[in-house]
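Now for a typical sample entry:
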Amino acid sequence: MITDATDATFQELVLDASHEVPVVVDFWAAWCGPCRQLGPVIEAAVTARDGAVRLVKVDTEASPRTAAAFRIQSIPAVKAFRNGKVVREFVGNQPPKAIEAFLDALIPSAAELAVASGDEVALRAAVAAEPRHLEARLALGRILLRRGANADAVEVLADAAHDAIGAGLLARAELALDPAADPEGAAALALLDDDPARAMEQLIAAITASDQPRKDRLRKVMIGIFGERGSDDELVVLYRRRLASALY
């Protein structure tokens, strides 16, 4: 898909649209010789990708506010947008192979699409095809944990243990697989979805009362929860301090 945008339509055609599909913007002008050389090449490459990426052309002479907003000082200038932000860019004419590589880097992989879909079958296929794709492995692990397929979750998450969130999910799967090994921790995790504050309070209590192996596993669980909720989350801020006190 190839369209023209102006100062008035840039928000809709580029920034808003980039939340649905990658949008490549070709900043050009009629007087620019390299622009005339680049234009047909990038247009053909985008067309060949059959809607996986969109091309929007912005005439810098006709749209000075947009050109100024993105600090266009030399043309042709090409910027790629995803989720309203510039994620890749280049300036000047480029050979066709470089343009092909530029566009291909914008198109989500099968694993990325599987993560976005949340479909277990697609995620299993993605993990099989790209075993090192961490987000696909984590997404599949979460699904397996939610439906109680704990042995499968342990198998999937074992190769994600190098990541803090992955290690936390793996520890949760191991605990769910053998709750008798740590009944207090298992009981706390059972509350996590419905009452995360109470769950973390009970995890702190379990850590305080645990021996070192159990303490280490519950520490991984909590650090993984912190990673999933984000560093600015109020519960994370509170319980990160509580965890440090419980451990040391």
User: Anything to note?
Assistant: Residues 15 and 137 are 30 Å apart (CA to CA). The chain has two domains: 2-104, 132-247. Residues 132-247 form one domain.
